[in-house]
User: Which sequence fits this backbone?
C-alpha cells in the first residue's frame, strides 16, 4: 500500500496503482464514495465499501 504510513490518499494497493480515471474510493456506512485515505478512521461496526475505477 502506498503511502506505507501516515496519512494521504491511497495511490497503490496490492501492486495496482491509480491511473487516469481509475482511482481508489471508499464509502463508510453507505456514504458517498470519496478518495480512499490512509488516515480514515474506521470504528467497530462500520460497513466499508471499496471501489476502484472512475
Assistant:
Amino acid at each position: 500500500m502506498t503511502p506505507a504510513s501516515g496519512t494521504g490518499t491511497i495511490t497503490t494497493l496490492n501492486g495496482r496503482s491509480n491511473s487516469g480515471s481509475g482511482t481508489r474510493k471508499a464509502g463508510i456506512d453507505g456514504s458517498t464514495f470519496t478518495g480512499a485515505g490512509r488516515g480514515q478512521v474506521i470504528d467497530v461496526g462500520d460497513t466499508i465499501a471499496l471501489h476502484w475505477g472512475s
Summary: The mean pLDDT is 83.
